[in-house]
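Let us work through a complete example step by step.
Step 1: write down the sequence.
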Amino acid sequence: MRADARRNAEKLRAAAAELFSERGLNAPLKEIARRAGVSHGTLYNLFGSREALIDEVVADLAAQRLGEVAEQALAAEDAWDGFAHYIEKLGELQATDPAINDVVSGRYPAAERLMAVCARCHRDAGRIIERAQRAGALRPDFTGEDLLFILSANALLAHAAKDTAPDVWRRGVAFMLDGLRTEAAHPLPAAPLTPEQLYAIMGNLTGTP
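Step 2: predict the structure and record it as tokens.
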């Protein structure tokens, strides 16, 4: 790669990192190119697609952030405290970095590295849930699909409230956690989501098939 192309690629990575963090992974590519001071065509010539740019810019950072939260949760001596920490920290990431919710929901299936991060996140969540349930602290009917469904709703509300009440999502998460304790459990009025139903719902939310 020529020196000028390397410089342009670096400027595009920096601009993409900023805009993805501000607006999520659907940030306009033309705006990324404009902020980097290059043409839209240059972006496509260097990266080829939105998904390739996402993999280049977001995958490693998302893996680090989500991995750290999971490690902290699994290292907690008390399984419920670890579970609550995981939920709270994921909620915080969603509220402060819109790209994280796009990662967790698997919004861009053609971004292969990002999907690997998403899959690892779901596996870690399953381990954290099972650990809290084995300890008798988390209601036994709670599933990984329930978690993603609830977190997706939290992300939408946190984004809508960010300029008016930026911390109000914490109140919703606290109510949710209280309702997930084993002693608070009551029979549920609907069956749990299947993975297929969950992915269909996520597609409706994000506009991806």
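Step 3: interpret the result. The chain has a mean pLDDT of 89.
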